[in-house]
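Field: COMPLEX_INPUT
Field: COMPONENT_COUNT = two
Field: RESIDUE_TOTAL = 614
Field: MODE = joint
Values follow.
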Amino acid sequence: MSVENIIEVENLVKKFGDFTANDDLTFSVKKSEIFGFLGANGAGKTTAIKILCGLSFPTSGKVNVAGFDVYKQRNKIKQNIGYMSQGFSLYDDLTVRENIEFYAGIYGIKRKLIRIRFEELVEKLQIHDLKNKFVRDLPLGWKQKIAFSVAIFHKPKVVFLDEPTSGVDPITRRQFWDLIYEAVESGITVFVTTHYMDEAEYCDRISIMVDGKIDAMGTPKELKQKFNAQNMDDVFIKLARKAENIE
Amino acid sequence: MKRFLAFLTKEFLHIFRDVRTMMILFLIPVFQILIFGYVIKNEVKDAKVGVLDLSGDVMTAGIVSKLDAANDIEIVKSFYNYEEIESAFRSNEIKAAIVFESDFADNFTKEKNANMQILLDASDPNLANLLNAYISAISANYAREHNSAESVIDVSIEPRMLYNENLVSAYMFVPGTMALILMVITALMSSISIVREKEIGTMEILLVSPLRPIQIVLGKLAPYAILSVINAISIILIGNVVFGVPVLGSPFVLLLVSFIFILMALSLGLLISSITKTQQVAMFISMFGLLLPTMLLSGFIFPIENMPVALQYFSYIVPAKYFLIAIKSVMLKGLGLAFIWKELLVLLIMTAVFIGISVKKFKIRLD
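Field: COMPLEX_OUTPUT
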């Protein structure tokens, strides 16, 4: 694979019995790119992310993540990726500091380094008064930011964000995207799924999945031109209609 | 290893942070053992005893007056037939009754053997045992004093435990409590703690992390294994020190038996967590699937021999039954490994089966 591509997928197929969840996916994600992975519920996004994260094997096809083969080098992949789920999965009964120490610990980061990076993070997010609070006492927006910081704490090559902004108000969402841009500037590649079409515009490139297949891929601008649409919402609706017509 | 330690630290934080968990872990065992222990009486004090003297000779009168003189026994009634004894037991007037055969003194001198019977209310098994030993000793003593030098003659004493023929020991409360507590802590708590990660979505993150699945499982189970061992030891200690429950067998065998039972319970917890998605379901299954059988069908509270046949068969799949047999043998009878290896084997086979099913379920989910 070329040095530029952090994720390379060729002819990926995943079947559960007779059901084909991922039907012949081919795409690649470049280094430091924000790649939007869009699709309706049940379109096969989650299945694809699980394969990319090394949680399940493809039925067939070639998949490379961070330079490692998904069939043979799953442990190497896991060390080099970050993951944030839609639940902002932190432990409510642990403090912010304990959560971070835990996640950093299971990625094998040395204690001293954890302390240094933690202080940097506190400085960056200005959370001096929050760092020793229990996560359950934090507002949703802060949980989200901290969950993201946890996901990239071990400086992965690529971070997978599974609907990272669901249930958060627009202003907080905007602030969250600032964090994402900051991560990209430091060299991290971002692979993000979202429901919000306005967010799709923030991505460098997007792919839209319908019924297990990638129906459209390109920069937001390209897609809007191709589908003759005002915004991404329009693009999505036109694609969905097409899917219904086929059925 | 360092990753694993980070994981363990987190698990202990969960446990020590949660008041409910701490209560279940440390208060309930102590309360339970104190409540059960309180019910048991350890001393004979003015125990009321009745006498049915079918002989009415000097010797029986001598034995009776000797018993009456003893500090802790009070002869309160004389009977004329067995029916009166029965009704005295039922109205709780007496705890024991002594029956002398007719021609007691004659048999003693001529046949060199006289018979007496002790009837005991074994619904309080501990007291029944003590009284039996007490009355037998005093009577035998009296007989010995009347032995002539050249020939040894004897009084045959036949005790009968009424209302509890098998004399289910009152001491059973220690093994029983252990079975219950170890089951609650290990199976219930470990399954809940695993399912909780699934419920709040952190399990995904753990699986995506470089931790291996086996490390996650071990990290989840290890804290409860450690705490269970501590609990097992403290239950035995409280039983022994506070209530005088004997530990006749080797402490090492006792620990081994407990540890195997804990392993079994952990594998059960793992199994439950692999088939459930929410903490509530896990709790429900543990309560009805584990706690009730452990309490009711293991021989802890009700003797298995007295159960309906269908339930007797069912008791074969209740793990606590084997644990109770094994631990009772070691603790109360002083038996060694040679006598309990079958029970231990059954527990180990159960453990292997549970782990096998869990691993299979886990693989299917990852596929």
